[in-house]
From TrEMBL, chain A:
UniProt cross-references to Pfam families, sorted A to Z: ATP-synt_DE (PF00401), ATP-synt_DE_N (PF02823)
Classification of source organism: Bacteria, Bacillati, Bacillota, Bacilli, Bacillales
First-listed, main subcellular location of the protein, grouped into a coarse class: membrane
Family: Belongs to the ATPase epsilon chain family.
UniProt organism field: Salinibacillus xinjiangensis
Gene: atpC
The protein, known as: ATP synthase epsilon chain
Automatic annotation (TrEMBL), chain B:
Homology family: Belongs to the ATPase gamma chain family.
MF term (GO), any: ATP binding
Described function: Produces ATP from ADP in the presence of a proton gradient across the membrane. The gamma chain is believed to be important in regulating ATPase activity and the flow of protons through the CF(0) complex.
Entry membrane topology: Peripheral membrane protein
Compartmental location: Cell membrane
Pfam name, any one: ATP-synt
Name of the featured protein: ATP synthase gamma chain
InterPro entries: ATP_synth_F1_ATPase_gsu, ATP_synth_F1_gsu, ATP_synth_F1_gsu_CS
Length: 134, 287
């Protein structure tokens, strides 16, 4: 089976570099599946989980603020944050989720709803990814 | 001539100071190594995002995005990176002097510019001079994560996007080596030098959904990562500057201790000589 090299890079350093058979990610307008030999492509990603399918196992990575650059034999994911399931602090994510929910419900004018909403999405995404491999 | 006890006291206190400065030197050295490492692990991200941005921006000439276009300048933003603590030699004063002079040269009234400052030293400097500070961060980590500065970077870029400022300059100390840091001015926004240093042919991409929307997402991220890069660079410089300053302080303390020891021994010898001559004199008087 042909493989493509996937590297995940964040401002805090590279997170992962490995060979996989397929990458599926959620772009702004829908799910994308990338197989080896794909034409060069650039697409922004939503706050979501990226699934990397390798031989017999699938890795999940929680990304936020990222985009995907595809070359025929290489996929690079650039994200402002990217975490593997075992790196995620579930407790912290849960707290962040509660905090964001409280802020969204408070209905005060001084609350930045957009920010609270994306904080909530990031937290939910982290919790989901942390639970996916168990 | 100072008494033996005075000199001894000064030697002890200088030795204690030396202990502190040499400890601080070592702490800064290890922090500098860490900061250098952080700056290095950021490079792959920066290179990649630069490559993609450049390939989109050069790929077709009709891309249109407010961040790429210069507009009439009504208000200028200055992003100044200083440290929270002193004892870093000329680190802060160099940068503040440069910014202060530039602003005085370029602007006549304080309505024409605004300052975004990181670090207590810078904040106090601008506050004392009644210069407008629109955003500030103090108490930044020694090894900042991207998450720590994301909000600030985001708000700064938004200032430009909302047309509150029409151009943005960054001032920070660029880390050249452990002994040399250079004050650097960088024009961050609008992004004009995208093609710089990128002469190699970039591959043409398919864009999903389209170039405009990717630029919408990508350019703010690019600007934010430039800010983060400057902060990492500045942090490495700060630790390097502090290390050098503390090394000088330790060396000076050594000199002072040597000097004082010499004086102490001389005084001691003089005292002994005097005592002997007193005894000899006393014995001679008895004969």
């Amino acid at each position: 089976m042909k493989t493509l090299t996937v590297s995940v890079v964040t401002p805090d350093g590279p997170v992962l570099e490995n060979a996989y058979e397929m990458v599926s990610a959620k772009a702004e307008n829908g799910e994308l599946g990338i197989l080896p030999g794909h034409i060069p492509l650039v697409a922004p990603l939503t706050i979501s989980a990226v699934r990397l399918k390798g031989e017999g196992n699938t890795d999940h990575i929680a990304v936020s603020g990222g985009f995907l650059e595809v070359r025929p034999d290489k996929v690079t994911i650039l994200a402002q944050s990217a975490e593997m399931p075992d790196e995620i602090d579930v407790e912290r994510a849960r707290k962040a989720k509660e905090r964001a929910e409280r802020r969204l419900q408070s209905q005060k004018d001084d609350v930045d709803f957009k920010r609270a909403e994306s904080a909530l999405r990031r937290a939910i995404n982290r919790i989901n990814v942390a639970g996916a491999n168990k | 001539m100072a008494s033996l006890r005075d000199i001894k006291g000064r030697i002890t206190s200088t030795k204690k100071t030396k202990q502190i400065t040499s400890a601080m030197e070592m702490v800064s050295a290890s922090k500098m190594n860490k900061a250098e490492q952080n700056a290095r692990s950021f490079v792959p991200y920066m290179e990649k995002i630069q490559e993609v941005v450049a390939s989109i921006a050069t790929g077709n000439l009709d891309v249109d995005h407010p961040m790429l276009k210069s507009r009439e300048v009504k208000k200028t933003g200055y992003f100044v990176f200083t440290s929270d603590r002193g004892l870093a030699g000329a680190y802060n004063s160099n940068i503040l002097r440069t910014v202060y002079n530039t602003i005085n040269k370029r602007h006549k009234s304080s309505d024409e510019y605004t300052i975004i400052v990181i670090g207590k030293v810078g904040r106090e400097f601008f506050k004392n001079r009644n210069m407008p500070v629109s955003k500030e961060i103090v108490g930044l980590n020694d090894q900042p994560d991207f998450a720590d500065i994301k909000d600030l970077a985001n708000e700064t870029v938004n200032l430009y996007a909302n047309e509150e400022i029409d151009e943005l300059y960054m001032y920070y100390n660029h880390y050249e080596s452990a002994i040399s840091q250079v004050v650097t001015e960088k024009k961050l926004l609008p992004l004009t030098d995208l093609n710089e240093g990128n002469s190699k042919a970039t591959s043409s991409y398919e864009y999903e959904p389209n170039q405009e929307e990717i630029l919408q997402v990508l350019l703010p991220q690019y600007a934010e990562s430039l800010i983060y890069g400057a902060i990492l660079d500045g942090k490495a410089s700060e630790h390097a500057a502090r290390m050098t300053a503390m090394k000088n302080a330790t060396d000076n303390a050594n000199d002072i201790i040597d000097d004082l020891s010499l004086k102490y021994n001389r005084a001691r010898q003089a005292a002994i000589t005097q005592e002997i001559s007193e005894i000899v004199g006393g014995a001679a008087a008895l004969e």
